[in-house]
Amino acid sequence: MQYLSASGILLEEKFNSDKLNTKMKQFLCAAAALLLMSACESSKQCLPLEGTQWKLTEMEGTANPAFSAEADTFNITFDAEKKMVYGAGACNRLFGPYVLTAEDGVDIERLAATMMACPNLDLENRFTKLLEEADSYKIDGDVLTLFDDGRKLLVFKGTAAASVPAEELTPAQPVPAADSVKTTEEAAAPATK
């Protein structure tokens, strides 16, 4: 049955329209909730890529006790202002420029490192090589994963960032000699006499 209201609108059609609006609102709310959840890949809040100190937990699918042996080893921090990544391997400081590309894309350019000898240099060299190979990332809560063409390279756990190593150097402090800072490619090359 159709009933006319005082304004001449069919009441039955108005009721159907209200049901449609309610369904539409429910659908839009559900879509918005899904969108918000997918942006972070987690129900918990995600840490930002830049400004977070990322501590290595896994390299190419393997955890190693050396990664957690000391708090200041095997970590990286992306500095948003300078567009530099800073970090440490087994004992050497690492640094180099990076570019964020497309959605979740990252390009870490040639990394340089100090040249101290210490245990686990093989792990450090592999760590820096994999950082340079990374082309994308995903953050799930406080976990950062770096990928190369979809292959999982490195997994990190995030914490509040400490001061960036480059800021620790002031003009009053000595700067390392040019021959003590080499790119990872130079460090991996065999020594010549």
Any descriptors?
Lipocalin, single chain, 193 residues, ten-stranded antiparallel sheet, 10 strands, alpha+beta, 2 domains
Write a structural description.
It is built from 5 helices and 10 strands. It has helices spanning 11-40, 65-68, 121-133, 165-168, 184-188; strands at 52-59, 75-79, 84-88, 93-101, 105-108, 112-114, 136-140, 143-148, 151-160, 181-183. Strands 1, 2, 3, 4, 5, 6, 7, 8, 9 and 10 form a 10-stranded antiparallel sheet that branches. Residues 9-15, 27-39 and 164-180 have low confidence and may be disordered. It has 2 domains: 12-41; 52-168 and 178-186, Lipocalin (Beta Barrel), CATH 2.40.128.270. The protein is of the alpha+beta class and 193 residues long. A hairpin with a 4-residue loop joins β2 (75-79) and β3.
Describe what is shown at a glance.
By secondary structure, the protein is of the alpha+beta class. Helix content is 29%, strand content 30%.
Which stretches are low in confidence, meaning pLDDT under 50 for 5 or more residues running?
A: 9-15, 27-39, 164-180
Helical percentage: 25-40%
Mean of residue pLDDT? Answer: 77
Distance between the termini: 100 Å
Rg over CA atoms, rounded to whole Å, is 26 Å
- Please give the CATH class of the largest domain: Mainly Beta
Question: What is the string of helix and strand elements?
Answer: HEHEEEEEHEEEHEH
Number of contiguous helices = 5
Described by strand count, sense and barrel closure, the largest sheet is: 10 strands, antiparallel
> Multimeric state of these chains?
single chain
Structural class: alpha+beta
What is the CATH third-level topology name of the largest domain? Lipocalin
Count the beta strands.
10
Task: Using the alpha-carbon principal axes, give the shape.
Answer: globular
Q: How many structural domains can be distinguished in the coordinates?
A: 2
CATH architecture of the largest domain: Beta Barrel
Q: Assess the beta-strand content as a share of residues.
A: 25-35%
